Each structure stands twice: as structure tokens, then as C-alpha cells.
Amino acid sequence: MSRILNHRMRSSLRRPSWSCVDKRAVAFSVWTGRSVLLHKPLESYQIPRRRYGMLIARAVRGVLKIRYLLLGGAVGGGMTLNKKYVEWKDGLPEMGWLNDLLPDNEQWDKFTTTLLDAKEKIGDQFQIGVPLTLSIHSDPRLREAGVARAAELREWLAQRYEDAVAAAAVNNATSRIEPAPKIVNNLQSRPAPMSAKSNTDETAAYERRVHALQEEVLSLQARYQRELQRLEQENRELRQQNMLLRQGRQPSTKKMKRSLIDMYSSVLDELADWDSGEAGRLPRVVVVGDQSAGKTSVLEMLAQARIFPRGAGEMCTRAPVKVTLSEGPYHVAQFNDSSREFDLNKEADLADLRKEVDLRMRNSVRGGRTVSSQQIAMSVKGPGIPRMVLVDLPGVISTQTVDMASDTREAIKEMTKQYMDNPNAIILCIQDGSVDAERSNVTDLVSSCDPSGKRTIFVLTKVDLAEENLANPNRIRRILEGKLFPMKALGYYAVVTGRSRKDDSIQSIREYEERFFRSSKLFKDGMVAAGQVTTRNLALGVAECFWRMVRDSVEQQADAFKAMRFNLESEWKNTFPRQRELDRDELFERARAELLDKSAELSGVPAAAWEARLQNALWAAAAQRIFSGIYLPAAAHASEDVDKFNTSVDIKLREWAENELATLSIKAGRQALREEFSELMSKSSDSDAIYEPVKKAAVDEALSRHQWEERAQDVLRVLQVNALQDRCVASRGDWDSAVSLMEDALKERLKTTEEDLKSLAGPGFRERWLYWQSSSEEQNRRSEVKSELERLGSSRPNLSYDEVVAVRDNLRRRGVDADNEYIRETWKPIYLKQFLQRALSRARDCRKSFYLYTQQNGTGKECCEVVMFWRVQSALRTTANALRQQIGNREAGRLDRELREVLDEMSSDADMKKKLLSGRRVELAEELKRVRQVQEKLEEFIEALNKEK
Questions:
Q1: 296 and 275 Cβ atoms separated by less than 8 Å
Q2: Which residues have a Cβ under 8 Å from the Cβ of 349 and sit 6 or more positions away?
């Protein structure tokens, strides 16, 4: 019952009374307008006055609450909108590059002015307008209309030209004059020369009018073609940029696709300095000729820039120069192994380019040579430049000067013949028209390499000088008809490449050339066809022949490389199965990685291993000096006097520590570092043996370069001097260690001394009977002296005069002749053997004397030799510890850096890698790599060539 009463009392205490609940319910109902307890409206309760007052209060509070809500919402919404705007603005892409890409107002005005001038210029010449609107927002249909209009203009020009030629033919027929020749491609057919059957003034006047009309038409057509090509190129670039901008992409600053000629040139670069047999016979234009015939000038006219150095009467071209000509928006030149572009419109860049070409040529002919076969590769791009690859060779000479190498003439001929022997090479034979044809040296070479003339183009230079100096112009006509030189050619051209003035620009030379041929008797008299003159026609003809040869032969060359690749891959599978095809560079990189990994393991060698190796290296380096320079001289000087021995040892140890020991320790440390690194290298059992020459050469070179830190010697010297001054052996273990060191050293020295005595006295009884060894006469003599000295029983290091005389007399009675010096010389190893035996016996006795040594507190004179060896051992231990710390803290890292430097130098030295990594495995992998590269580039080029067709 008590439990029930207590429970009820606790429950009543926890529950509130009904009066309290009613009060809370009424207050909540006033606030909400609803009854919580009775679930009835508040009006059922009789509280009228409070009801109206509370309603008014609620209304006022609601109004105030709405004001704060509105104000807070406005402020918070504004802040939220501002934050959203900032996030949206930060998320927008960066469009600042448009300012650098799009031209400014000044550039737009300049470009518009250029277009208007071009339009007026073309309109004034042809009385027509070319509807090309070169705006970045131009309609694509406008370009199609411009191209259609250009085609109509070409047809109009062709019709005008045909009408002029037909009119000339009709009038010539009425005047009994043969019709004028039609200008055709010089590489396809050669027009028959004009024959004048009448010398009347009317015929001459009409002929002049016809030629004037031809010149006007050709000039206008060439100018219109150049201007049209330039405008179309600019329009095409602008439209491409416009398209990218509309798509929201940034135009690339790099060229996205290589040109066809650049792809072909890269194939030729792969084949440079590589004799691949018939598979490497790819077409190229080989420029050959006599020295000073104008080869370089012709090449510069084709490149439209003065890109080669010039010398007065001196050989300029000393090495083959491969020049890749291609069309581009800017006139620039660049070497294949350099990233610098030379602006050919600036004189400063032109001068730098000529200096670079001259420097490369001179570097290629070091070692007393005059010419070199090392090829210099460069590319030239610019508007209107024909696409082709030319190789300019040194000029053929007939006489060597004294400052040339003895084999210069033959070397030039062999080099020229090697390039011309390529059955797909186009030979551009340059002949000086201002000299006699009989002085030509190159025509016989060309005729021997291409007797049918199916790939030879003949170029006669300096025609202006030839016309001025020759009395008979028919000689030039016979040359250009192929009737004077004993060689055949596809085509014959006459050009003018200069006016004997060094500073003339290419444009001035071209204008002079055009003016000359307009007024030349050769052209006026019909001796030379229009298609056979000017470097412009030469460039078109050579380019056409070059690409025709490329299209005819490139498929065959690709098949040859494919067959070569199949043969090499088959050889690899049969010879080196289950091995990767790693070329020389890849093998070197693997060897480098293994070396650097092993170098990093130096820091992980335990300290105990380092100290043991360093102590052995130090003792091996110092043992001879300790015995011969300290211990034996001190023992000989002391002569059983312990005080003298200790004093002598103190002096000699201090001198040794101050003068030699630090340097000797550094050498021992380097030797220990070398041995440890060599052991780390030998532990890699899975390493390929082909890497070993590279590893050994790199490690040897790095260790030879490695120099210990200079201040390390001073630190070692202080530590060693302090260690050698300590004469107190603190523990039994240190005492036994010193005794063991002394015993080992004495035994080793005793063994060496006995071997020396054996070599002096000859083999003993056992060797003579068991191993059939015999003694020489000198050994028998030494043996007699040795026996007599041992019977003497002296214990002094130096024999007295009486002792020497006694030994000599005894030997003389036995029939052995020996002088005093001979006896003393024989006594030295005998005394050393006896001394070492006594010292070894004392060391064994001293092993048990540590207790006596401790009782005397280190002041006793017994076992002073053990104390000396303890001092030496303590100094070597201290040195080994210091060297270990220096290796771990400094020297290992410095050696690793030096090893990296050596490997970097070796990686850039192709001859060194070829010497260290050799064998059929490496050579076969190298051939496979190059054949694959050439084949892939050829296939890429063929694909692009077929698309262009």
C-alpha cells in the first residue's frame, strides 16, 4: 500500500493542476483565436473586453511585422542578386584574346585602302571590276561570284591573245611570212624558230607590234595572276578566322596542317646521311654547275631573297644546302634544326641568315678539308614561291689552288656524281653564258649520269653579258636548242640573275631581267621562244617537272620501304625473339634510369657497412706508411729503448697527421665510394648486359670528375691529430682489437718479407725436390750469404764493420766472392724477418697484459707497440666515421649530380652512344626505327598527294 500511495503522490506532483492548464489554454487561445482544450471558438468564453483589445494588438503587430519582412526581404534579395551576378560574371569565358586577334581601326583602314588601290589598279588595266568583298563578315556567295568573274577574265585574256596571234598569222601569210610561233610549255615541245623571208619595213614594224602585244598580254596576265592569288589567300584566311569566331573558338596561332612540300621535305630529312640503297631514291632538284656559273644566284631568284653569302673570287658553297621552297603568307626562312625564323623582308635578318649559313659551312669543313658532304637543311616560304626541294652543290672546279685540300676537285666531282646518280633526281645544269662553251666541266658529268636527258634541265645564265660580248647570236640559239653541248635535256632556259652588283635586290634583278628580254635581239629576232626566258618560267617548268617525277616514283619508293621493313622485322623475330625492339636512344635511357636508381641507393647503405669499408680502405692506403715510415724507423732508432721509441712515434705520427693523413684519407674515401657503387651495380642481376659499357663509362667519368669538398681535409686533420694524441686504451675490447691489428699487420709484412727472401735466395729444398724448381747462379750466391748472416746471429739493424769483414772472410773461404755492400744489402730482409718474428711474439705476449697496463694507469713501458697501433686504429676509426658522414651528407649527392651531368652529355653525343651501344641487335633496331618512320611519312605524304589530285 505504501508503494501505491507513493506512486500516486509522485504522479500528482508531475501533473499540473487543471487550473494551471486552463490558464495556459486561455492565454494560447487569445494568441491564436482557437481553444486548445475545448476545441471551440474563443467567442464561447465570456471575455469581451480583452477580446477586442487583443485583436487590435494583433493587427498592429502584423502591420509592423510586414514592414520588417518587406525591408529585410528587399535587402536580402538585393544581396543575393548581387552575389548571383558576380558568380555569373566570373563564369563567363575570357574574351580578351579578341583584342589581340581582331585588327584595330588603323589596321582596318590600311587594309581597306590596300584593297581599294588593288581594285582600282586592276580595273584601270583590264577595264573590269573584280567583285571580291574581303570583309570578315562577307557572304560566301560573294567569293564564288569573284571566282566566276576571274574565270571570265581569263577567258577574255586568252581570246584576246589568240585573236592577236591569228591576226599576225593572216597578215604574215599575205606578206609571205611564216606564222608566228605559239608560246607553249618549254618542257613539252619547243617551237620552231621564226624565219623572216622579207626584210621590208612593213614586216619589221608589224613584227614589233606583235611582240609588243605579246609582252603586254604576258605582263598583264602575270600581274593580274599575282594580285588575284594574294587577294584570294587573304580572303581565305579572313573567312577561316571569321568561321572560328562565329563558332566561339579561338583561332589557332599555329599552322594546323603541314603543306605537301613540307611533308615531302621531312621524308628527305629522314633519309639524309643514310645509305638506303634503291629505297632512298626519292626525287629532288640537284643544282650543279661550274664554279661561279651562277648556281647560287639562280637558287636565290627561285627563293626570291639573297639568302647565301657571297665572296669575290672565293668558293662560297662548301657543303650541300637543301632548300625546301613552299608558298606561304610571309616571306621567311628557317633552318630545320632551329626555331628562329628570319624575316626575308628585313635587311638585318637577311644579314644574320647569310652569316649563319657561312658559319655552318665553315664548321662542316673542319680538319683541313675544303668541302664537306654534311648537308645543311633550310626552308624558305613566301607568296608566289614554287613548291620544290632543291640541293645546291659546290661548283665543279678545273684547277685547285694551294690553299685547298689536295682532294678537293675529286671530292666535288664524287659528291656531284653521287647526287646525280639518283635515277629520280632532276638535274638543274647551270652554264655560264658569258664564257666559252669549251670551258665547261659540268656538262660531261651530266651527260655521263643522264645520257638520254630525261631528267636534265639546262639553264644558261648571264645571257645579257653573252649577248653583249658575242658577235654571233646564233651561238646562243644553238645552245638553247641543245645543238652545241654534247648533252640532252628536257628543256633549255635563258635567265639573267644579276648585273654584277652585290647589293641589288631580287625585285630589281627581276625587273632588269624582264626589261632585257623585252629589248633583247634574241627575243625580237625569234631566236628564243617566250617560254624559254626569265627565271619565272624556269621556276614553273622545274616545279612541274619535280611534281611529275614525285607522282611517278613515290608509290614505288613506298613499296620498296615496305619490303625493307618486312625483311628487317622477320630478321628481328628470328634473331632476337622475345626481346623488345629498343633503338640506341631507348637503350641509353634505360641504362640512365638504372644508373640513377643505383645512385639513389647509396644513401640507403648502412652506417656499419660504410665504416667497415672505409676502415679497410684507409688501412690499405696507410699500412705501408705506418710500417716503413713510422714503426720500423722508430724501432730501429730506439734500439730496445722504450722512451726513445715512444718519442719517435709521437713525432712521426704528428708529422704524418699534419702533412699526409688527411689527403690519404680523401683518396681512400673516394676508393671506398667507387667500390660501394660498383658493388651496387653488380647486384642488379636482371640488368641487360648491353647496358654495361654505358654504365661503366658513365661511372668512371663521374668518379674522375668528383672532387671531395676542400674544407673536408681541414676537418679531418683536426680530428686525426686529436685522435692520435690519445694514448689511453679504455677497455679490454679496444686492447684486443689493437693487438689483433698488430698481429695481422706483422703477419702480412712477415709473409711479404719471406717471399722477398725466397726470390733472392731461390727455392728451398722442398721446392727443388717436389716441384722441380732450380736456382740461378745469383740466387745460389745470395743463399750462401744468407746462411752465413743467419749463423752470425746479430740483432742490430745495421751490421758493424767487423761483422761485415767476418762474414766476407768466411764466404771467401767457401769460394763465394761478396763485397761489403752486397752483404749489407742481403742483411736488410734477414734482419726485418727476425724483427717481425720477435715483434709478433711480443704481440702474443701482450694480449694477456691488459690488466698490468690498467694497473699502471697507462704509464707503463710494456707493450708500447700495442699502444701505438691502438692510436693508429683510433685515428682511422675516427676518420672512417667522419668520411661516412661526409659521404651521406654531401659527397653522395654531389656524385649523383655529376653522374647526371655526364649522362646528359653522353645523351647529346651521338658518336659516344654509337661507340658504347653497338652490335647487330642495336643496329637492327635502329634500321627498323628509321624504316618505319620513313614509311609512315611516305604513306602520309601519298595520302595528302592523292587528296590534292
A1: no
A2: 342, 343
